[in-house]
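Support case: zinc ion complex. Customer-provided input:
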Amino acid sequence: MWNFINPVNLRFSPDCLKNLGELIAGRSYCIVTYDGEPFANWVQAIRQSAGSPVKVVSNVEPNPSLNHLIQQARELKKCSPFPEVIVGLGGGSALDSAKFLAACESGIDNLVAMLRQGYDIPDIKTKIIAIPTTAGTGSEVTCWATIWDTENQSKLSLESKALYAEHALIDSELMLELPLGITINTALDALSHAFESLWNKNRNPVSNALAVQAIKGIFEYLPLLVKDLKNPKLRQKIAVSSTLAGLAFSNTKTALAHNISYEVTMKYGVVHGLACSFTLPGILTAMIGQDTKLDYALAQVFPVKLELAPQYMKDFFSILGVATEYADYGIKQTEWTAIVSNAFDGARGANFIGLKEVVLPQI
Ligand SMILES: [Zn+2]
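Agent response - structure generated as follows:
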């Protein structure tokens, strides 16, 4: 038995900010975004379309920390009544912050306690509109948010069906000015989401189909995009691939590569998109021939025979200038063995269909 659920109303549209007013439809709203340009300009475009927001939270952190989110939530709680809609505008950090702030409607202390204990939060009335300005995190189509408890050196996951966005607006014109590094890192995050949903105990035919198309799109178009960053058609192709990957892992969650990444990001400061993807060639090498359904899916995504797929993947990373050895990220062998072993034991590691003794020698 399997099912596939994703209730997000997806809209691929240019000029999405100008048309936001019709979706907000007179409801009170708050914008959660970053400081400075181009975000201030985009906030202005939203104002013109949807009227004045009750609040603009413009100090989103990269890798948002729990303490910072609590401060933002206290400020937002001063709005009375609480906004009916939270608009997240930005990369994964902005969208995840928007989810936390929407969830704090039910009480900040209560929310933090549930988050620390790993409970699903209760239903909330506040709706979320997600407008990603990068292509990769998939947060616009998932019902969870990653929050960093920097005091306790741990990563927390906020999760609830109530955190699915009411609308996700994908406008690749908002991504045209992204620099090379962010373009690569976020697309590799999407690539990881797609692979992680394939080598996943929760996979199903729909998530597999979405992941296969996502990977094919990233393999084909990312090497072209890195040489032509302002090409709108290529931006659109990667935005679509990222969304397909997001939809795939919205139903499976991630697996080993992501569970490895959290410690690598926390201890070594490696950005998420790199931390969760540099192990993909090694995991792929280990997993070929281990599982018939996985082999079937992998045979569809690579334009070469399966035995040549690991080299294809390494060459792909090499074209992007991304290192695939842990030592390249300043990690020593004993530390690496511990990180990988711990990753097998965590919740995301339990989603992974492979065996530690098969994978560890290859990554
Ligand atoms: Zn990710």
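The CA atoms of residues 15 and 63 lie 28 Å apart.

Case will auto-close in a few days if no follow-up is received.
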